[in-house]
Hints:
Blueprint: H1 11-19, H2 23-28, E1 30-39, E2 49-52, H3 54-65, E3 70-78, E4 82-90, E5 96-106, E6 109-119
Parallel strand pairs: 1-6
Antiparallel strand pairs: 1-2, 3-4, 4-5, 5-6
Amino acid sequence: MATSATEAFNFDDLKQALEHSDAATLAGLYAEDAEMVIVDRNRPPSSPMTLSGKEAIAAFWRDVCSRDMTHRVGREVVGVDRAAFVEECAYPDGCHVMSSMTLDLRDGRIAKHFTVQAWDEVSCATGRAS
């Protein structure tokens, strides 16, 4: 089923929300039954962090957006039913996190969000993730 012009996903909204730590706008971009999967050093492929449903994903974004850090989005590739991009984050203490994200889109909303991320091992002693 083709996505109509009124149902198109607006990547610029996502980019602005990430770069301005706007959790409410981010949450609004997801379908009610969306799923988010995150893989990193602490959450390996055999046991990724999986969030199911818009409310769980909204709670995730509220946590991330409440942190003192900057976000920069780039290297985006956007299609009708899929988008991919890289997000670079920096904490004031020098910790840097880089995430590669792929989004499956349905009816102008994010249906599935997959992230692989890494952070500086030396400056991010706590192993935190974005």
